[in-house]
Protein: Aminopyrimidine aminohydrolase
Amino acid sequence: MNNWYKEISEKTDSILQQIKEHSFIKELMAGTLPKEVFYFYINQDTIYLAEYKKVLAQVGIMCDDENDTQFFLGSATGIINVENALHQNFLKDEMTTNEASITCELYISYLSRMVHTTSLEEGLAAVLPCFTIYKQVGDYILANQSNKGENPYQDWINTYGGEAFANSVNKAIEITNKYASKASPERLEKMNKAFEKASKLEWMFWDSAYNKEAWKI
Ligand SMILES: Cc1ncc(C[n+]2csc(CCO)c2C)c(N)n1
Structure:
């Protein structure tokens, strides 16, 4: 399998399309997303990123090529620098809870289980949608918005659209493809499942913010 990512992104394209059509993304693009919904999202995303950086570090130390290790450890550090700054910018004093929503809990627990108890290839496949979906969504919004000067969420949009982020996403794809090229058909099938599930969890993450998801009890 030489271009595993190309195949799996075609197979899961309907999830990406549903993300682009989600009201959260539509309203983010229009700049009309209610502030409290965006704050809910950023608040949960701060909780998510605190765990995700550990997940990336774990994937990094499992890679046998030191360049790959460096890439994932660098990405984990990048989260601390870039994404935290973005969050501080938007969140100010509005961080209202330290408790993960059901979906946030599910997503970070799933990723943590994948990187700690399955193979490196499955771990790579599970963490990849976080990179690729944000890239696709960032580019989609940049290409289709007509309000660049006045969208209150422009800094968020600019972080995920454009060149700098593209390089990092391409590197993550390249590394995952490299390990996939040596994987057995059974392992590839498990990678496909992991990529698909994490993609669905990306949709659910936005959906849960849009609905300000609360614990049932
Ligand atoms: C739920 C959720 N999924 C993906 C990202 C985007 N993201 C988080 S860390 C990282 C890699 C290094 O920057 C990327 C692309 C997010 N913020 N929140």
User: Anything to note?
Assistant: The chain is about 80% helix and 0% strand.
